[in-house]
Specification:
3-stranded antiparallel sheet, 39% helix
């Protein structure tokens, strides 16, 4: 009997993280981590969950766009999508009137991410596998068919992708066994938010070291003198052998080459969240060279591929790289960043790109250009998402995790039944529950409490006043 998609639900879920300074940086000073969330239902009981990340106001706008897109799925057989998820992605982006308000960027693209991710979650649940396992078990032909290729075939054809994936078939099972055993390398951001006090940064940095981390990121861009002072403070902690009673990494090891690792093998990264013009970025970051960052993340406008290339050229003699991608709105932007040799590190976002099928296209291009992928994960649900993507990249696409590190931020994981977890090496554990799909299912109690505007938390915060959705 054919299964049909019957209906869907959307939720505007907002967490009051602005009260504690979580997520604060030079550009985004009052983040309320939020989720434009969708659940898609079928008449067989099969469901799929998806979301896209926002930071408060505007989440309702994304939810409205999700409703426009998800409505197109109602009445369809999900298996007809699962047969070729690349074609399904093209179809989801093909409504000409909805496409007009992008195209393939902005609110409509964020909404497409939520719906496409929900469809992938449903696909994985239907097969009884975590998402990463569903994809790495695909044949090279099936994986190519799952990928979005429109507008990138001038740098990567389907035939090239097939050859790359076929070449990586050898050793897939060994790589799967290794990453399952040791975990996927990570770095921590949640010790370095701009709104935190020195005492809190110091405490969280030491706590991160004790948890096995050796890559640390701090936010910069609001005040140069303060950034330099905080950077020196963090360096003094992560470079101190006394803080590593169990030993530390060799800074000359291949995995740390070119990362400006200190004497304990600790690596520091800095992130400006788009706050500078190109000349400002060059001047500011060269002034921070003494704290020896591996890279500067998002030094300027995310759409400025040539600006990133100019910054990268200017910083090369200082041994400082350039990373971006958190706000690169589609695969075409990444194509141009690769073509312009503008970045040293590719930072995909699981729901700024429009779902798994578009992410796969960027992973393939990054592998072709030899650029390591270190996904963005600073936000609610993003860590749960991106561990799947990094494991897919390692096992099936790039075949390496030697220089890759996946962002970890220690916020809001308690709202997910299939939350991500870390091991004692400061690495992500690989998701293993056959029921978890893409790991983004949220507890119903969390939705009821934090849904905007009338979840129990928000009603309580307003002293019991209930608002209409139009308020």
């Amino acid at each position: 009997m054919t299964t049909r998609i019957t209906h869907f639900e959307t939720h505007d879920i907002r967490f009051p993280t602005s009260l504690t300074g979580d997520g604060t940086d030079a550009m985004n000073t009052d983040c309320d981590y939020s989720s434009a969330y969708v659940t898609i239902y079928t008449d067989s009981g099969l469901i799929g969950h998806g979301m896209t990340f926002t930071i408060g106001r505007g989440t309702d706008i994304v939810c409205h766009a999700i409703r426009q897109l998800a409505g197109r799925l109602v009445g369809r057989d999900p298996e007809s999508f699962f047969e070729n998820m690349g074609k399904a992605w093209d179809w989801m982006c093909s409504d000409s009137q909805l496409r007009w308000i992008g195209p393939e960027k902005g609110v409509i693209h964020l909404a497409t991410a939520a719906v496409n991710n929900a469809l992938w979650d449903m696909f994985a649940r239907a097969r009884g596998k975590p998402l990463w396992k569903l994809i790495v078990d695909m044949t090279p032909e099936e994986l190519v068919n799952a990928t979005a290729f429109r507008y990138i075939t001038d740098v990567l054809t389907r035939e090239e992708a097939l050859a790359m994936l076929t070449a990586k078939e050898a050793g897939k099972r060994e790589r799967e066994a290794l990453v399952t055993e040791v975990g996927y390398p990570a770095y921590i951001t949640s010790a370095g938010w701009l709104g935190y006090s020195d005492e809190k940064v110091s405490h969280l940095t030491k706590e991160a070291i004790a948890s096995g981390f050796n890559h640390f990121k701090m936010k910069v861009g609001a005040d140069f003198k303060d950034d330099l002072r905080r950077g020196k403070m963090i360096r003094s902690i992560i470079d101190d052998p006394a803080n590593y009673p169990s030993g530390f990494k060799d800074p000359s090891s291949p995995e740390l080459a070119g990362k400006n690792a200190g004497p304990t093998g600790a690596v520091l990264m800095i992130d400006a969240n788009q706050v500078w013009d190109v000349p400002q970025a060059i001047e500011y970051v060269t002034g921070l060279a003494e704290i020896k960052p591996w890279f500067i993340e998002e030094p300027t406008a995310p759409d400025d591929a040539l600006g990133h290339a100019a910054i990268r050229r200017a910083l090369k003699s200082y041994g400082i790289g350039v990373a971006t991608g958190e706000h690169a709105h589609n695969r075409i932007m990444f194509k141009q960043l690769f073509q312009a040799e503008a970045i040293d590190v590719c930072q995909i976002d699981s729901c700024r790109l429009a779902g798994v099928s578009e992410v796969l296209s960027v992973l393939l291009m990054a592998a072709k250009f030899g650029v390591p992928v270190c996904p963005h994960a600073g936000g609610v649900g993003l860590c749960e998402y991106v561990i799947h993507l990094s494991v897919i990249d390692y096992i099936a696409i790039s075949g390496t995790m030697e220089r890759n590190v996946l962002e970890f931020a220690d916020h809001l994981h308690e709202h997910f039944p299939y939350r991500c977890t870390m091991n004692k090496r400061g690495r992500y554990n690989v998701p293993s529950n056959p029921k978890e799909g893409y790991s983004i299912e949220m507890y119903k109690e969390s939705i009821a409490k934090f849904e905007w505007p009338n979840g129990s938390y928000w009603v309580g915060a307003r002293g019991g006043k209930v608002l209409s959705l139009s308020t």
